[in-house]
Amino acid sequence: xxxxxxxxxxxxxxxxxxxxxxxxxxxxxxxxxxxxxxxxxxxxxxxxxxxxxxxxxxxxxxxxxxxxxxxxxxxxxxxxxxxxxxxxxxxxxxxxxxxxxxxxxxxxxxxxxxxxxxxxxxxxxxxxxxxxxxxxxxxxxxxxxxxxxxxxxxxxxxxxxxxxxxxxxxxxxxxxxxxxxxxxxxxxxxxxxxxxxxxxxxxxxxxxxxxxxxxxxxxxxxxxxxxxxxxxxxxxxxxxxxxxxxxxxxxxxxxxxxxxxxxxxxxxxxxxxxxxxxxxxxxxxxxxxxxxxxxxxxxxxxxxxxxxxxxxxxxxxxxxxxxxxxxxxxxxxxxxxxxxxxxxxxxxxxxxxxxxxxxxxxxxxxxxxxxxxxxxxxxxxxxxxxxxxxxxxxxxxxxxxxxxxxxxxxxxxxx
Length: 415
Ligand code: EPZ
Known about the structure:
The chain is α/β, with parallel strands linked by helices. The protein has helices at 22-31, 48-60, 85-88, 98-105, 124-132, 162-173, 188-200, 231-244, 259-268, 305-312, 331-338, 368-380, 391-396, 400-406, and strands spanning 3-7, 12-17, 39-42, 62-67, 70-75, 82-83, 107-111, 136-140, 143-147, 154-156, 177-182, 203-205, 211-216, 224-226, 246-251, 271-275, 278-282, 292-293, 318-322, 342-346, 349-353, 362-364, 384-388, 410-414. The chain is globular and about 60 Å long.
């Protein structure tokens, strides 16, 4: 298993371009199941989760050619409507095939993703949404089986789940008539999916707000699409620079996708300014402690909570971080403590009393973003940190060691 070896204390300087978004790329690739025509998706990050998605599409019967950042998906054979456990267990987002396949073929069978390191993560909101559109569901041998001809409907979520919003949008895009989703997720990735569904021939309005209207068509056509820049990679790099010190320009980064994080960073003392097509971040010494609560977009994103905790570990004062999206997304706290952070976790809150310096240690990544948090801590720490289980980080960050090395960090991958 690969490890990262990081010698901390170097300031980061220079310019880097933000990669395409993993969490926008995944549903968009899956949405190509809605048509038999060819689709070309550009700016796709080369990541483990995207490779798993490609394998899922191939298993279902698509032909996928991946060249650099461009993925071409064509119809190879009659699509299968069964997403098997060996793929779903590697990537929970596989549940997103349920909506498009059910809408097109009136049946789908998807292995149920179990819980994961950060929470229980049930899929009830997806299922209730599809049932509201006319599906019948049963669970058998660990799979969820959905049957029925979907009808345009009014779907109201009990919580604005990102995945459930995407699933229902895709299902609604493939049936004639108007479906209205209320209490929908408002994440930028939803807007990107809406843009793609519109280029396939559906009519989606309201994406980015909590009410989305989808006017679907039974036959959608092929399209080209460029995936938006990854706001979580952006957030992680903003925090890395703010914690380690330095001055970096992040090309393609979008301020409006990260308002809550940028607000907290500015309060803590970092300087963030828009550039022609991105953001510039300048660190300014030890940050002030600033408390945050994770929330659905446009609130503070749970996916940068771990890197933010690493940043707050060296702040002046005490910060409280409340994690309101996932039940157990604080596994990084104990690893940060190994580096000298003073963190106490109680229920859904973590209390961080900032220390002047973290010190390098051997630590382990428990999920993608926990791993990113450890990188941020290691860049700011004195001495050497060795991060194990880097495969978690590789699920969501494209060659992050290369990006950081280019900016002056002392980081290498041990194979
Ligand atoms: C998406 O996951 C992202 N994944 C996650 O990114 C991100 O953390 C999350 O949204 C929240 O922003 C992708 O886009 C592929 P949710 P998703 O459904 O869709 C509960 C990363 O590191 N819930 O909005 O699975 C759920 O348990 C990750 O890149 C139900 O109870 O998130 C969680 O507590 C990990 N029932 C909360 O809602 C459901 O049916 C938010 O989940 C669905 C969700």
